[in-house]
Amino acid sequence: xxxxxxxxxxxxxxxxxxxxxxxxxxxxxxxxxxxxxxxxxxxxxxxxxxxxxxxxxxxxxxxxxxxxxxxxxxxxxxxx
Length: 80
Prior knowledge:
Blueprint: E1 2-5, H1 7-14, H2 18-29, E2 36-38, E3 45-50, E4 53-60, E5 63-71, H3 72-75
């Protein structure tokens, strides 16, 4: 499984504290396993829950693109 990051996701991860970065990277490395659900209203958009953080990503065939990393309250506002 190939995992890529959007510029927005890279910026979001860079702003996090070191322990949170490690938890999120560890969760992303295990994709597509974990607490993953497809978001309603989107064909290929999924979310991974890690604590109070949401990792929004698209999954097509063997490709995963991490779209953004957001706190729980911000993840579902507006959409991508």
